[in-house]
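## retry 2 of 3
previous attempt timed out at serialization; input unchanged, resubmitting
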Amino acid sequence: MCGIVAAFGVVDAARCERMLNRIGHRGPDDTGVRALPTAWLGHQRLSIVDVSGGHQPLTDAAETTWVVGNGEIYNHERLTAALPDGVVRTGSDTEAALHTVMRTGPAAVARLNGMFAIAMADVEGNGLVARDPVGVKPLYWIAGDDVTLFASELRAFDERDRPRVEAFPPGCLWTPAAGVVRYADAVPVEVRPARRAQIELWDNVVLDEVRDAVIAAVRRRMMSDVGVGVFLSGGLDSAIVAAVAAQEAAARGEQLPTFAVGTPQSPDLAAARKVAAQVGSDHHEVVVTAEDLVDALDDAVTVTEHFDPLLVRSAVPNLLLARDASRKVKVVLTGEGADELFAGYAYHHTPEFADPDALHAELVRSLEQLHGLNLQRCDRTTMYYGLEAREPFLDAALVRTALRLPPEWKQCSDGRPEKAILREAFRGWLPEDLLWRGKEQFGDGTGAGTVLAELAARRVERADLDEVPRTPPDCWPLRSDEEAMYYALWHARFAGIRPRFTLEPFATS
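## retry succeeded, writing output
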């Protein structure tokens, strides 16, 4: 949920207001600011938890310390229960984080279980900014001599400030006194080394552990005072999420909304329709034409704030899906992260990763880079329409469970398909033909991939790319004419931003 802006030091309130206004799409329900002697906090709110009482910035009873937050703290009820009665005065998860940090210090951010970027400031000039370990929620900053600035999106920063903008690192916190300190890793240290298999193949105990971890992660992400739906591609990951979420919704006496996008004959629409019938969801389809995809292509570059072709192409159907889903719900669950945990991509099963240790190392690396790639696309395309996406597969406990599995079990040995252990764990939850359906990239399954590839090829032919440097300043070498074309569009919108300090290139594209 939401978008935040924070400033510490010599504050220019007009500059901060401009920054906050540029990310109004992230929080269409409410706007709040708090100016302190040496700090400024701004918040654009998407109301999800404690809709009536969660206006931000939030403060303590004595109004000494203020906080703004983007995201969700899933263990906020447990945090509140550990505090004296009456300290937390609202049902807001962000207020629980405020008091937890106030009482035990900055290191308490390690106790927050969720996706978040938070900023706190007090009347004495102290401050704190922190981002979740995986980097699900975005955060950028400028570390200046007289002022330090933070914002949820690149577009927030004034043009003159752009050359100094950097991505604030996940799993880190900042204070004026100590600077940047790492408090957690995307991949916990205990599961970074690969574990050797003690048995040749997994047993039912292992399958139960995997299934239970996924179910618990989905349940945590159903936390909301407003409607929650699922982006249902028809692929394995989102289908599992939908199956679990539908059961949770039914236990509450509700019917889960699901949303699918594709061209009229796309395989994703057909598969999603079948999954929806199986789990009993209230299913909605966004049927798109080639013209719809063409119209959204340029917007995808601006909205995602990126120019990688894989991200841009997959963002187009995401944008169209988010636009329609936002008219019915404020929160959607997605399947992001499953491929990085369970080796779901085709390249994971090439000779380069035949060695189990090499495969595990690649899974760790890709998880650590998700914040600047698929998660960036997922966040921007949904939040552009005031819709919050949540990713159960990136739950901290599930990450530990999945990475404790021996990497040999994730390889396609003896004719096993990719993610076989995840499929086995959910046998009986989905139709068999869909449970064992092969992996398709999102853009391909929707039917958008072919259309967008042809469109990109035609535009490249017409584009004047002679003036586009193949290694722009502070950027990686552009790897294709299509990427050069998107870079030109991106540069026109974000001139001054340095990609090497704010974006990630796809290592496998």
